[in-house]
Amino acid sequence: MQTLEQLKKGELVGATHLQLAEDLTQFPREIFTLADTLEVLDLSNNRLTELPADLSRLTKLRILFCSNNQFTRLPDALGVCESLDIIGFKHNQIIDVPETSLPENLRWLILTDNCIKVLPESLGDLERLQKLALAGNAITHLPNAIARCKNLELLRISSNQFAEFPYLLLSLPRLAWLAFSNNPFCDVRDEHAECMTLKRSQFEWQEVLGQGASGVISRAINREANDNLAREVAIKVFKGEVTSDGSPEDELDICLSVGEHPNVVTPLAKIAEDSMSALVMSLIPPNYFNLGQAPSFDTCTRDTFTQGQAFSISQIQHMVNQVDSVMAHLRSKRICHGDLYAHNMLIHPEGHLLFGDFGAASKYDCLPMYQQHGLQRIEQRAMTHFIEDMLNLCIEEDKQTEAYYDLKRRMFNIA
Fold first, then answer.
1. What is the mean pLDDT of residues 61-81?
2. Does residue 253 share a domain with residue 148?
């Protein structure tokens, strides 16, 4: 992170990335001294309420983050920034999204956790839009123009005020990752009376194993002898705030609803106290590793992978078969995962795969059958991308095998 003082002294001349978090209440005009070079500007975690009308002077600006500020209106100045293709205004107080505030080259728009009720019809003019995060607002319907967003691949509308499922989404030809839980049309959580409810004090907390948008996972020691619970477990403590995917409480509910499957991290119990909501899970052995990494700014909706990562076609078939099994299990529960990605999978060196992260999952058993089938098609598109990613990692000598072409054909049949 840089400082405003460095900027004022001219120490940042030629910078392509700038991050300032100094409790700013006004946009520092000194930023314009970087007009010829600045590509990424992060002004998150300040107290800004507006941007300058001449923001477009930053002619090379591609990415702008203004999360955790005090905006009540998405600035009109954004709409004339021709190079902008990623905008993030998460955790503000935005009520108004003007028709003129969306630059036409936008690929990725983050408006999570605001106060938005209505979106502009100009959303339909964003032909390049691939990723749209709207969770945690008060939106009651999507504009009809969203049907023109033919390149939209990932959409988050959880924790809004939709009285019915936005059926227009089923016509989007590339939509593959969708989250819609915690809306009035599907706002049902199960009691899970069969699940053990334990106390935090029962566990001795150990090191943090990982963390994401919805919570922190730690290793823990079970102090009490219990035939139904291992001595060592993993506990995911959910954060209270709405994430880009939706509500942590829905993730807890869906994890318990999914139940047991050999390729899903097993839920064992829950902790439900005033100060904590948490899921107790089986501890994953340390020799499992992430199959993929999350998308980058450049890939937008597609996973990234470690350079040199490669698998034989038989290993890929085995992975695909395991994911197929998980998806069939979820269909039987009328749950769509919403985030079918390699970066949400762990794999053992011998090939066993564990599927996780249900933060974007949604229940759809309340919907008409044609909408259920439409959601299943959306999930199948995500499966297409997963197969494509795995085939791109196939070792060269296996790319002429019948098994390789079988998966290729299957990929196109799904699409």
1. 98
2. no
